[in-house]
Amino acid sequence: MKKILAASLILAFALTGCNTFKGVGKDVSKAGNAVTNTAEKAEDKM
What keywords is this UniProt entry annotated with (predicted)? Predict the structure, then answer.
């Protein structure tokens, strides 16, 4: 019983971690797109 509980907790933490990293990746991607768009707008003005 204790092994099943421990395995369930480890699995829950692993899945939560994956979702967190996925969210961070999306945030970084959005920030990169924002920088790219700003640079393109500045280049168009020149």
Answer: Cell membrane, Lipoprotein, Membrane, Palmitate, Signal
Query: Distance between CA atoms of 23 and 1, rounded to whole angstroms?
Result: 33
Output DSSP code: residue 26.
H
Model confidence pLDDT, tens digit, residues 1-46: 778 888 887 777 776 766 666 676 777 788 888 888 888 888 787 7
Tokens of 9: 């907790």
Cα–Cα dist 24/34, whole Å: 15
What is the residue type of 29?
S
Token pair for residue 13? 């933490």
